[in-house]
Structures are given as structure tokens and as C-alpha cells.
Design brief:
Layout lengths: L2 H16 L8 H10 L4 H8 L5 H10 L8 H8 L10 H12 L5 H8 L10 H9 L13 H8 L2 E8 L3 E6 L2 E4 L2 E4 L3 E6 L14 E5 L2 E5 L2 H19 L3
Helix pairs in contact: 1-2, 1-5, 4-5, 8-10
Amino acid sequence: MSDSGVLRFGRYAFPPNALGYCGPDDHDALLGYVVGGRADQGLVELGRRFEGAYPYLQLIARSNGIGDPFDARVVEAYWLGNRLLEGVDMGAFAGSLRERFGGRVRADAMRWLAAKPLAGATPHHNFHVFEVYTRAGLMNGDASGPLLSVMDSCRISWGEVVAVAADHLTVMRSPLELVAGKLALGAARQTEATAKGGGYVPGVRAGDAVSMHWSWACEVLKPRELARLRESTRAALALCNATL
């Protein structure tokens, strides 16, 4: 088991879990693991109960000959993007989409979705957000809300920290917008990101780039990580816009 991988998975998975949108009900346990920086089999079991994300980790790991779906490289590929996404067999990806979502969407929509891997889709979280999440009934309860707002909150985004307070960060972040019928990232604007008293992103400073998920700051990004997330998002948006 990769401690760093499963902890990083939990760091990104917790924000929607705390809102009751996905994953197990034991939100406090997941938060305790992440803030405490400890990993054991209990955290692995919590991670496996994220029915939206975990099968993607399995697919990425299996395609690249990696035994642990929570391997740090696999987790990074799913949330931020890296070269492992290029190693995923597109036929296997399409088959996974059919198996997982064939019973949740109309037949014509499933044909359209299953064709996305051959058009260049990769099993990145932002592909899941733009193409699958809000269409396949994966949000618990009455959490779907307005589509654009949900996609903007659920995608992994990034921003530059301009101020650090006791329990939140002030961040300059580009929102998801609909421009002439296409999805685009707008001009950066100031927003607040939860940081849980500094325990969630320890050591963060003004000028840092942070990743964000459902209005939480997940971690400070290194320049190469930020570049990967930007590129993965750009590719996912372009693919989604091709069929809007």
C-alpha cells in the first residue's frame, strides 16, 4: 500500500464526501486520516467505497501494470494527470464506461459516451465531471443542482493564494463559464477556499498555487503538477465542447 497515494486520494475525495455527494458516510474518519497524515487498511477501505473514482484508479493501475490502485502515480494521474493516462487502453476504457454506466443512461447517450475514449478521452477526474458525473446519477440524494455550477465545483481546479486566514484561503481562480454555447475558463476572480485551520494544507503561503475541489483547497501544487492539471483540464474541455 502506498501511504502517500491513499492519503492524497483522501485529500481530494473528502470535500464532496463531507457534503454527502459521494463515498462512505464516515466523513470524520476520512478527515482524521487526511489531517493526521496517517494511513492504514481502514483508509484503504474508505477509499474503495468511492464508486465514482475507485474504478478509474483500478483501470489506470491495471493498464500500466501497477498492482495497487492507490499507488501514488495512479492517484496523481486521476486527480491531476500524468503519463499513466497515456498507457490506458482505449478499448478497455470504453468497455469500463459501458459496464459501469450502461444501465444509468439512455442507449443513444451511452453510444456517445463510449465513443469518447477513441476520440482522445482519458480517465481523468475532469473527464468524469464534464462527461459522466451529472448524467449518470452518481450524485447522492438531490445534489445535482444547476449543471454548470456543479461541474465548476466538482472539477479539480487551481488558483493562486493571495491571503491566508485561520480557516480559509483567499484565492484567485478562473470559474467555468458557458460562452457561445461552449465551456470555457473565465477571467480569474477572488474566491474563498476552506483550509480547515491550516491542517488541510499546512505551510501554505500567499503566492502558492493550490488545487481545489468543492471549494476546499486540497494541496499546494508544484509547477509541474499545476502544468499537468492545466493540460488535462484543457484537453477534457476541448473534448466535451466537441459534442456540446
